[in-house]
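HUMAN: Quick job: go over this next protein and say how the chain folds.
***
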Amino acid sequence: MLIVGMANAAFFAADLFHEAFRAPFPVPRDDSGLSIPTPPGLWRQYVAFYKWSDTHVEPVAFVNFLRHGDAYLVGGLCARRNFYRRLPASHWRACKARGGIVQMLLDRAAVELGDAAALFGYCGDAKSWRVSERAGYRRTPYQYVIVKWLRDVAERDRAALEAKVAAVGPF
């Protein structure tokens, strides 16, 4: 498994994203439709690749991060629907032991994006919540807004950052 962070993963992950969401890929751009500025320089996208053979490498998971103050907003998390069914049994067991491809993707990104105080997700799906929780995310007082703290932050500053992110709306 290879997990790669990049500025724009459209070339590798657009079809994967469309398979998961039936929506256009979140290409880094100034006007992303959010209530905050989204210049391309604030975006970071991660793709997990699986090597099936010496000549076949496939993108199997994707996640998008957008810098917002001292946090990253996490969105577009998805995995190839039939990935696990196609894995050799030994690789499936190894992947499962690490929490699955999505958790590996979230864990890797959290290490690389440690320049922020926290990673925030907007999660209303039970399956996605279970994976996010295993990856260290916790619920906030705001419906659907979840957080993974990357460093110690005073409680009042945590509350302020949670409110700031919740004010963005769905991301």
In short: The beta strands are 2-6, 43-53, 56-68, 71-79, 118-122, 138-139, 145-149.
